[in-house]
Structures are given as C-alpha cells and as structure tokens.
Amino acid sequence: MEFTIPQMWAKMGFIAKGVVIILGVMSVFVVAVAIERLLVFMKARKQSREYALMLQDLLQKDKFKEAAEAAQNYKFSHVAKVVRAALQEFMKGNLLAQSCAEYDVLGGVNRSIEKAAARELAYLRRGLAGLATVGSTAPFVGLFGTVFGIINSFQGMAAEGSGGLGAVSAGIAEALVTTGAGIGVAIVAVLLYNYFTSQVEVLQVDTSESALEILDLLHKRQQGASKAA
Questions:
Q1: What angle do CA 48, 113, 50 make, to 5 degrees?
Q2: pTM of the entire structure?
Q3: Distance CA 104, CA 79 (A)
Q4: Are 141 and 182 in contact (CB under 8 A)?
Q5: 91-114 pLDDT tens trace
Q6: 143: Cβ–Cβ under 8 A, 6 or more apart, which residues?
Q7: Over the stretch 139-160, which tens digit does the pLDDT of each residue have?
Q8: Which long-range contacts link 17-26 to residues 24+ away (Cβ below 8 Å)?
Q9: Going by C-beta distance under 8 Å and a sequence separation of 6 or more, which residues neighbour residue 227?
Q10: CA distance linking residue 102 with residue 184, whole number of Å
C-alpha cells in the first residue's frame, strides 16, 4: 500500500472519513473567523485613530452634537460608539435636568458608557468562543477516528489470519491521520484564540481610557456650567 493521501482516504472506513470531514469543517471555520476578526480589528484601530483626532478638535469647541453625529461615520470604531453613547446621554441628560434638578446627568452618562462598552466587548469577542471550542474538542474528534482506525487494524488482522504489518498498516495509518489532523487543527485554533484574546484586551483598554477621558471632560463642563449658573 502506498501511504499517500488519496490511497489512505480510499482505505479509510466510513467513520474515519466522517471524522476527517468534520475536522476539515473545523479548520475552515477557524480560518474564516481568523480572517474576519483580523479585518474587524484592523478597521477598529484605524477608524478609532481617525475619530480621536477629529474628536479632540470638536470637544475643544464644545461641539458635542457634531461629535456624536460624526461617530456614525466610523461604524467599526469601538471608541466612536462608546463616545457617541456618552455624548448623546449627556445632551439628553442636560435637557432632563432643566425640568428635574435632581437628575444625575453624569450618572446617566456613566451608565450609558458601561452599556455601550459591554456591547462593544461582546462584538469584539464574537467568534472567539468558537475558536476555544475547536481548540478543546478537535483532539478528541481525531481520537474518535483513531479508535475506529485501530478497530480496522484488528479487523484486517482477523481477515488475514495473521498479525503481519501488511494486515494492520492501513488501520494504523488511518488512526495516525485522524489524530494528527485533530491535533493540528487544535494547535492553530488555540494559538489564534490566545492572540485574538490579547488583541481584545488591548482594544478594551483603549475603550476604557477613552470613556474615562470623555467622562472627565463632561464632568468639567458640567461643573463649569453649574458655576456659571
């Protein structure tokens, strides 16, 4: 028997072929998630930098409405979405405070920031749970194929009536293929999961810093308006 991929595929049993197909689907999923997340993170960083440069100028001129509206043009920016939520709540809170003096404007802004940041974190982590699942289950899927490969080996031994290498080689090769494929898919999935998790943490820090800065700025503006009144 030639130990080439077509030859081993032809000799594989139904269960082992199913295992290889499942691992192939897992690998396609891993690659798709990796490409999609890379594009999302690249756009998030780029648009966040662009929005931050524009936001600085608008806030210095107290153009809160313009800054909130401009955030809609940066759909992939995690910073823009959080800042927009904060500014919209600040403007709405100021209107409510005029009719209800006890309304806590900054408290409402802080709650709005927390909700927007939570939504963005969930969006940034989308697909990572799938990578973790593949990384933890792929070796066992391969092992499942290994068990049936060994079973085929014993069936070959029984059919040949001997324990020679030729009787068991096909089943052993089948077992090694599924095991190796499962381990390979798992390694790639785990590496990508760890990488993207670290990237999410970096983006989360950016979001937190931007939220604190905007909250501090709005607090100063609120105090200035109170003293002026």
A1: 10
A2: 0.81
A3: 24
A4: yes
A5: 887 766 666 656 677 788 888 888
A6: 178, 179, 182
A7: 999 888 888 777 767 776 666 6
A8: 19/141, 19/142, 19/144, 19/145, 19/148, 19/178, 19/182, 20/145, 20/177, 20/178, 20/181, 22/141, 23/138, 23/141, 23/142, 23/178, 23/181, 23/182, 23/185, 26/134, 26/138, 26/141, 26/185, 26/189
A9: none
A10: 61
Q: At what angle do helices 78-99 and 165-228 cross, to 10 degrees?
A: 30
How many whole angstroms separate alpha carbon 81 and alpha carbon 114?
12
Q: Do you know the residue count of the chain?
A: 229
Structure tokens at 189: 């999935």
Whole-angstrom Cα distance, residue 20 to residue 149? 12
Q: Among candidates 150, 214, 142, which has minimal Cα distance to 178?
A: 142
- Short-list 27, 25, 23, CA closest to 188: 27
Rounded to whole angstroms, the Cα distance separating 19 from 141 reads 7
